[in-house]
Amino acid sequence: MELKDEARTCRYCTNLYIWSAGEQQYYNERVLNPPERCPECRAKKRQMRREEMVTLKEGKGEHYEANRISQDTK
Ligand SMILES: [Zn+2]
Q1: What percent of the chain has pLDDT over 90?
Q2: CA 11 to ligand 1 center in whole angstroms
Q3: 39: how many CB neighbours lie within 10 A of its CB?
Q4: Strand partners, 18
Q5: Ligand 1 center to 60 CA (angstroms)
Q6: Can you tell me the mean pLDDT for 51-67?
Q7: Do the beta carbons of residue 17 and residue 7 sit within 8 Å?
Q8: Strand partners, 17
Q9: In angstroms, what is the span from residue 67 Cα to ligand 1's centroid?
Q10: CA 38 to ligand 1 centroid distance, Å
Q11: Confidence of residue 21 (pLDDT cuts 50, 70, 90)
């Protein structure tokens, strides 16, 4: 079956985008569902996830500083 560039509507921003034949092949080979988002929305999502991960990392950064109580009694 020959693949052709396909015009699709992004489910999120409703923009029309081209789902290229090359990309279709990529999806077919990996048995993935066709993308619902345009490349821009996908990039945005990736960016958001990256930011989430950074926040998560920062939130987890608990530093325990052992308070050493040294009593030097002379
Ligand atoms: Zn979009």
Answers
A1: 68
A2: 7
A3: 15
A4: 7
A5: 32
A6: 70
A7: yes
A8: 8
A9: 52
A10: 4
A11: very high
- The three-state secondary structure class of 3 is coil
How many whole angstroms separate alpha carbon 72 and alpha carbon 58? 37
Would you place residue 66 in the very low, low, confident or very high pLDDT band (cuts 50, 70, 90)? low
Query: Do 13 and 40 form a contact (C-beta atoms < 8 A)?
Result: yes
Predicted TM-score of the model (pTM): 0.60
Half-sphere exposure of 19 (CA within 13 A, CB side): 19
Closest CA to 10 of 1, 2, 19: 19
Per the CB < 8 A criterion, the answer to whether 20 and 5 are in contact is: yes
Ion ligand 1 neighbours (CB, 5 A) are 10, 12-13, 38, 41
